[in-house]
């Protein structure tokens, strides 16, 4: 495909002048070069400028530059060339062939050496570092209460034990007395909600033969708000 | 052809002049490097190393730094070949990397040579003594004159006259419009004017060449 650009003859002298360095280094395309040369035929100042530019290029080329040892330099670099991302021709690359209809090699990752792109590696590292923090944070922020649907009770006790909630106005001696009446002893101090866990020992004047009888008795006593048997946890 | 127009071959998709795009050889090379082919990379390295070294050395006047920057540049090509998008020659893309790394090094103050104020250059030009070899003297003066240019101007001059690149390629390397390249060259030429006056031959070289 080709396009037509304005002829340099329609440009100003300065426009032509601005292209002379690339006429001097012989990098212009044939058509552009030909048109500049047409201008030069009639412009002596541009001809002198071109001569000066060529002399400049010639002298620049003579300025000494140390001769590098490319082989030795490559050997130094090769020592640094550790495994790097390998490409899979089966997968398209992100950068190549976005603009040309002509088929061109596609680049993508392949696994001669399992390579983890830096972004993925950073994400994995963050995960490793953050997971324990999240776990710890979760423990810290876990609610200190439990619902009745919790599978694991935070309270001590075993099947046959009782959970009791007394009226807050009930004094400790009165609670002790009630417990003695049914032959029970406290195995779990009241926590949040004032829930006592008691175990029937079978002793005491009013000792009951089983938890059902003890529950029935306690429910009739003043100051006892809740009586419940501990079930399997 | 219309005499007021010139014909430029361009890529149908991008509109980029074809002579500044990568060719099949470039595509094949970068694909092989992308597949981890060390021989392909070595071939590219040995081909470009002298040119890159010359360009960076002329920009920095520091051999050790130039050697380091060349390897940093080509190491990036080995590590990130997918960065080449095929919209320029492979060498143009690599020169662009080298140019940016060089500017960064200069910005960090790594470069050892310092720019010379233009007044100092004029003083050198006017007060110069006749040396044993005028050619050597001119080379030395030009070295000083080049140091009076900004880094961007010097890059344009070096890429044009030392590397022989087209202004479109230089625009890609510098990451600027083509007109900016021409403008930088224009200002560089003005700064070098005292030196250019010394170089201008008496005869008309252009007409001489055309006649022969």
Please describe the structure with a list of short key phrases separated by commas or semicolons.
heterodimer; A: 233 residues; alpha+beta; two-stranded antiparallel ribbon; B: 212 residues; mainly alpha; 11 helices
Could you explain how this protein is built, in words?
The complex is a heterodimer of chains A (233) and B (212). Chain A has 233 residues and is an alpha+beta fold. In chain A, 42% of the residues lie in helices and 13% in strands. In chain A, the strands form 2 sheets. A 4-stranded antiparallel β-sheet of chain A has the order 5-6-4-7, with helices on one face. In chain A, helix 1 runs parallel beside helix 3 (44-62). The two termini of chain A are 82 Å apart. Chain B is mainly alpha-helical and 212 residues long. Chain B has 11 helices and 1 strand, in the order E-H-H-H-H-H-H-H-H-H-H-H. Chain B has helices spanning 24-34, 38-60, 63-79, 90-107, 118-127, 134-147, 151-162, 167-174, 178-191, 193-199, 205-211, and one strand at residues 5-9. In chain B, helix 1 (24-34) crosses helix 2, helix 2 packs antiparallel against helix 3 and helix 7 (151-162) packs across helix 9 (178-191). In chain B, 38% of the residues are buried. At the A-B interface, strand 1, helix 1, helix 2, helix 3 and helix 4 of A face strand 1, helix 1, helix 2, helix 3 and helix 6 of B.
What's the topology here?
The complex is a heterodimer of chains A (233) and B (212).
Chain A: E1 2-6, H1 13-24, H2 30-40, H3 44-62, H4 70-80, E2 86-87, E3 109-110, H5 118-141, E4 162-166, H6 172-182, E5 184-188, E6 195-200, H7 211-219, E7 224-229
Antiparallel strand pairs in A: 2-3, 4-6, 4-7, 5-6
Helix pairs in contact in A: 1-3
Chain B: E1 5-9, H1 24-34, H2 38-60, H3 63-79, H4 90-107, H5 118-127, H6 134-147, H7 151-162, H8 167-174, H9 178-191, H10 193-199, H11 205-211
Helix pairs in contact in B: 1-2, 2-3, 2-4, 3-4, 4-8, 7-9, 8-9
